[in-house]
Amino acid sequence: MTEVAQPPLVLASSSPRRRDLLAQIGILPARTQSPDIDETPRPAEPPRVYAERMAREKALAVPREAGECLLAGDTTVAAGRRIFPPAASEEDVARFLELLSGRRHRVFAAVALIDAEGVLRARVAESVVRFKRLHPDEIAAYAASGEGIGKAAGYAIQGRAAGLIAFMSGSYSGVVGLPLFETRALLETAGLHV
């Protein structure tokens, strides 16, 4: 029995976490390229809608060759309708953690795939995360670690922040950066067998 060649996959991301997550399910992209888009939320845009729009726009922003599939993702953290951007500094990390301390928040992990024929499909996984009530010293120590810089809402669930999270429901891989269940389903739809 001969194996059918799979279309090459382009990962529209510079995130090493997304590449590592894909590797967990046996997928290695042929190449990666970072999309360059405006990630500003629209006025009154719901977080779930924003996450899916970002994943779709990232997928469309990266050129692909004929026959290639292209995968993009977005991780959006929200408390109510407030969307948290990636933390740009230790001060951002501390401010975000103060706001999230003891509260539940939602993480929308969107994934978009353009198949070899150019058809774009997207899915969104929703998770709920709750930090314990954080002491100011815990917030200061986490912010000083530098781990939260560049991360949505200023934390990495796969790192030191795991010890501060009291509850999590939904897609763990989605909170890390790519919802693997939804990603696998999209890849299989596009003829990439996992």
TrEMBL record:
Entry cofactors: a divalent metal cation
Gene3D superfamilies with a match to the protein in the record: 3.90.950.10
Molecular function as annotated in GO: dTTP diphosphatase activity; UTP diphosphatase activity
E.C. no: 3.6.1.9
Cellular localisation: Cytoplasm
UniProt keyword list: Cytoplasm, Hydrolase, Nucleotide metabolism
Keyword Hydrolase: yes
Any one biological process term the GO annotation gives: nucleotide metabolic process
GO cellular-component term (any): cytoplasm
Enzyme class: hydrolase
Keyword Transport found: no
Domain of life: Bacteria
Reaction catalyzed: dTTP + H2O = dTMP + diphosphate + H(+); UTP + H2O = UMP + diphosphate + H(+)
Annotated catalytic residues: 74 (proton acceptor)
Site positions (Important for substrate specificity): 17, 75, 158
InterPro entries reported for this sequence: ITPase-like_fam, Maf-like
Its job: Nucleoside triphosphate pyrophosphatase that hydrolyzes dTTP and UTP. May have a dual role in cell division arrest and in preventing the incorporation of modified nucleotides into cellular nucleic acids.
NCBIfam families, per database record: maf (TIGR00172)
Family the entry assigns: Belongs to the Maf family. YhdE subfamily.
Protein name stated in the entry: dTTP/UTP pyrophosphatase
Organism from which the protein derives: Pacificimonas flava
